[in-house]
Write a structure and sequence with these properties.
mainly beta; Neuraminidase; 4-stranded antiparallel β-sheet; 29 strands; F-box domain-containing protein
Length: about 400
């Protein structure tokens, strides 16, 4: 979404017209001035203030609010958490700065499918996208066999509603996905049909496609050099030098003693040059681990460099250690250790938010059915840690092995 210059101190005329003149937002003040005051309220607190009066309910429910926040660049970095299938459990927006939560409506539900997991969620402007995933379909046989989904949904924060989009060309879950910078397009690559209930089962694929947001259309691109699922995607460079990287994940599987299925994880990455007139061929990046070195298989996140806009920072959380990927040497190096280690049989949530790394865990009290979200925050440039505690609104333990996390700026 194009953003006007922040040097403008006045509200754009087209935004002024959307404020209902008959309803005084703050008595004694012009509505344009009152709107400037109210849009500074953190987005996570909007629901609490809607009930104040009719004019506030109208303003906080209108498209004007987010447009004003974008116009003046008064945006907050928020975390969107999908605790489980979003068609049956509401996702939540979490504001770590104000320790506030705001629920989103459940995604449109289909009577034939259930147990959606391993989908990908990402934000583009004021829209939140939910793509693909693995699920069970009552129309398939056998019923206990999971399958992948091609469904695509968009949540519009301006209207606060979900919309069903054109489905992907290929159904997939656990795939690489990234929005093309400065372009209303999204690329997805690889994936498969694995479900959380089946640790090492399901199909793998190499298909790649691009989504045009404006046209609501998917277009097939050259596939990955080999099958790859459970991977992460991101962009490196800009203009004609821009590349789409796919890193991590697993391909074929083998069995131990002819019984137990084990994934064969990739030790390298692949990159595709993305030109203005289309996509180029894939090239393979060599082994990222030295001979005899144990390959790490932790969660990978990407931190964009807002200053240069060229080369992002890639981090991995493996156990209690954070590693950083060095593109020059094609090797992972230890960055830091999590101050408070994970307890046995527990997992961390790992996400980038506002230029920092958030390492999250939950303390659950079964007797009261309440929990506490403990967040350890690492600043890569300052090499410092801080922490915060929040009380989430969930009525069951939050499993970070299966929960989907993404960030949005509103």
């Amino acid at each position: 979404m194009a953003r006007p210059s922040s040097s403008s101190s006045a509200v754009a005329p087209e935004l002024q017209l959307r404020i209902e003149e008959k309803l005084a937002l703050i008595p004694g003040l012009p509505n344009d001035v009152a709107a400037k005051i109210l849009f500074c309220v953190p987005y996570s607190h909007v629901d609490r203030l809607k009930v104040t009066c009719k004019s506030w309910r109208h303003f906080f429910s209108s498209k004007t609010l987010i447009r004003l926040r974008n116009h003046h660049r008064n945006l907050s970095s928020l975390l969107c958490i999908f605790p489980q299938d979003p068609s049956i459990a509401s996702p939540y927006i979490f504001d770590p700065e104000n320790l506030a939560w705001r629920p989103l409506p459940p995604m449109p539900c289909s009577p034939h499918v259930y147990g959606l997991c391993n989908f990908t969620s990402l934000a583009v402007g004021t829209n939140l996208y939910v793509l693909g995933g693995s699920l069970f379909d009552t129309r398939s046989f056998p019923l206990e066999r999971p399958c992948s989904s091609s469904a695509a949904f968009r949540f519009d924060f301006l209207t606060f509603k979900w919309h069903r989009l054109a489905p992907m060309l290929y159904p997939r879950g656990s795939f690489a996905c990234a929005a093309i910078p400065s372009s209303d397009q999204i690329i997805v690559a690889g994936g498969g049909s694995r479900h959380n209930l089946f640790c090492a089962a399901g199909s793998r694929m190499s298909a790649v496609e691009r989504y045009d947001i404006e046209r609501d259309e998917w277009v097939a691109l050259d596939g990955l050099p080999s099958f790859r699922a459970g991977c992460v995607g991101f962009f490196v460079g800009e203009g004609e030098e821009r590349e789409f990287w796919v890193m991590g994940g697993y391909g074929e599987s083998r069995t131990l003693s002819g019984v137990f299925p084990v994934d064969e994880y990739y030790r390298d990455a692949v990159a595709m040059e993305l030109k203005s007139n289309g996509a180029g061929k894939w090239r393979e990046v060599g082994d990222m681990w030295a001979e005899g070195e144990r390959a790490r298989l932790g969660k990978i996140v990407v931190m964009e460099d807002e200053e240069s806009g060229c080369r992002p920072s890639i981090f991995m959380l493996d156990g209690n250690e954070i590693l950083r990927y060095d593109m020059a040497s094609n090797h992972w190096q230890k960055e830091s250790s999590v101050p408070r280690k994970a307890s046995r049989n527990s997992s961390f949530g790992f996400v980038v938010l506002g230029g920092e790394l958030y390492v999250m865990s939950q303390r659950w009290r079964p007797h009261t059915k309440t929990g506490t979200l403990f967040v350890q925050i690492y600043h890569p440039r300052k090499n410092t840690w801080r922490s915060l505690l929040a009380r989430p609104p969930f009525h069951c333990p939050l499993d970070f092995k299966t929960a989907i996390l993404c960030t949005v700026r509103l």
